[in-house]
Every structure is written in structure tokens, then in C-alpha cells.
Design goal:
This protein is 34% helix and 23% strand. By secondary structure, the chain is α+β, with helices and mostly antiparallel strands. The protein folds into two domains: 152 residues, PurM-like, N-terminal domain (60s Ribosomal Protein L30, Chain: A), CATH 3.30.1330.10; 184 residues, Alpha-Beta Complex (Phosphoribosyl-aminoimidazole Synthetase, Chain A, domain 2), CATH 3.90.650.10. Strands 8-11-7-12-9-13-10 form a seven-stranded mixed β-sheet, sandwiched between helices. Strands 1-2-3-6-4-5 form a six-stranded mixed β-sheet, with helices on one face. Strand 4, helix 4 and strand 5 form a beta-alpha-beta unit.
Amino acid sequence: MPRVSQGASAHDALTTTARGAGCGCKLDPSVLLEALSSVPPLPADPRLLVGNGDLDDGAAYLLDEHTAVVATVDFFTAVVDDPEIFGAIAATNALSDLHAMGARPTIALAVVAYPADGDRQALGRIMAAGARTAAGEGCPVVGGHSIDDPEPKYGLCAIGTAHPDRLLRNDRGRPGDLLLLTKPLGVGIALAAHRAGEPAPLDEALRTMLRSNGGASRAAVHAGASCATDVTGFGLLGHLGEVAAASGCAASLTAAAVPLLPGVAGLAAAGHGTGGGRRNRSHVEGRLDVDAGVDDRLISVFTDPQTSGGLLVAAPPHVVAEIARHPDAAGATVVGSLVDGDVGRIAVRP
């Protein structure tokens, strides 16, 4: 793992050239949904276990009765200035989509955009750190594709395998399931405040982004969970809304239970945030019922884009209790539940 602390260096242009940072550079959810409405429907295929219908974290295809192949791709603009940390975070984030589906990473291809006249040593450090990070999870980077682009971007197209009966999917939640979140929120706000020169929990944010979701995924699969997603560019409320809608139910979120990076609520109250967070909030507000006792700054944190965020698992109480006892799920917190109600609607309680 690369060192966590980063300082000013010759590579500061990594973030100054980025129009959005990390998973905050995703397209507005409404723009994406409109574009997807023009995509032809997938042909009927009983082997296609998970396609694009429920906006899940990857696609799953049945090879045989014991094996499903799971595929995903994720890349983004620089979230930090240090090339090695950027590469490691991007790889960790990409593999998280496989973990969110209960899959074991197998191989990956690198996706690289970089200026042809840019610092070649920095590019090498990005790619080397990404490859080392993936190899550390048993997933060699075996090839890839690159383009000339003035805005550096890096990520992985990753392939994994899972038993078809043990897939974690975002449409398998049921009313009464508890919601378990495995990492604290506030990465986007912390990075925005740091770039603005304000004191921010930068090291804590970097550590959480560099922490793999592999252990928590294995704990969830072992405990018998079947519903999960990872919390990334659309924020906690955006991804929770996807789970609730795909599962045909509503959700209730307990605001005080949601773990946050230290000081992030105060940074949000001071106006620190991202364009991605504002887009996320606009997208979900029509489906929110926020109790009058909930501090409004928390809604900004709950819609904050998370780069390499935690898993959000929906499972019956006894399954959640077993996951939470597992050493690989240390710090996982129950933050709410799925409930009967208007499909996709979220109530935020104090």
C-alpha cells in the first residue's frame, strides 16, 4: 500500500486538471438514466443473471451450475495529487464493484487516459500502484487500453467469479431487512475542504478509500446475505434508493446512526461540498421524507459522492448480526432498514 500522507509535489496538476474528483465526476444520475432509456433492451438469455435493468454494480453471466462470471468497469479523474495513491484508490474502487456482488476478483484490464506530453514517470507510478493493489487481491492486471487525454483518468475493467446462488444483488432486499454500512461517509466533502485550504480529515479519508471491501464482502456472503451495493458516486441516499427501488420496497434511514469521518458534518455546515453532491441531492430530493429533527447538513453528507466507499448490505437481523461479528467487517454499522411503502422512497429519521 502506498504511503497515506501526501504533500505538495511536482504532480499537483493531477487534480488541477480534473473537472471532478474521483467518483464525483460521474454523470448526473438523471442524464445517465435518460441516455440508458435509448439503449436497446437486452435479448432474452436465461444465463444472463444480472444485466443493466436495476443499475447493479456489475453484470453476471452463468457459466455452469457452480460458476457465474461477474464483470465491471470503473475509472475516474484524479482524486489526489500523489500518483501512487491515485492509482491504488482507483484500483480499490474498481474491485469494490466485484465485492459488492460477492465475486472474487480474477483478472483486470487497465483503463488509462493521460496527456501524451505528460509526466511519464507519474503515469508509470499510477499504473504500477494500481497493478500492485489489484495483485494484492489476487487479481493481476493483464492488459488494458490507453488514450491521449489532457485530463488524467485511471481505473480497471475487472472480471471475477461467484457461485450463482451466492451473488450479492441490489434487488434482493426485503421489508424488515436491516441496512449495514461498512465505511464512514464524507470523503468528497473532506477532499473539497482540503483543496480549499481548510483543516480536513485527509488522512482518514485516504485510509478509508484505500481499504478493500473484500473482507466485508466475504463476511456478508458467508453469513448468507443476498443483497448489497457499494456506496460511491451517487452517495448513500442515491445508492440506497437504487436498492429500495430494485427490491420493490421503501427505506428508513436513521441519521444519527450513520458513521461519518471526523469533522465532516461541520465542514458541510460551513458550505464545503462538491458539484456531484449537489447533483445527487437534486436527483433524490423528490423521493425523500426528511423528519424536521434531522439537521439539513447531514443530507448534504448523505448525498456526498464517495470514492471507494463502503458496502451497503441489506439482510435479515440475524444475518446482519453475524456479519457485524466478523473481524473483516469491523466498524460496520446498522443505519436503517428496508420497509413496506412507496417503492424507492426514503424516510430519514433523527
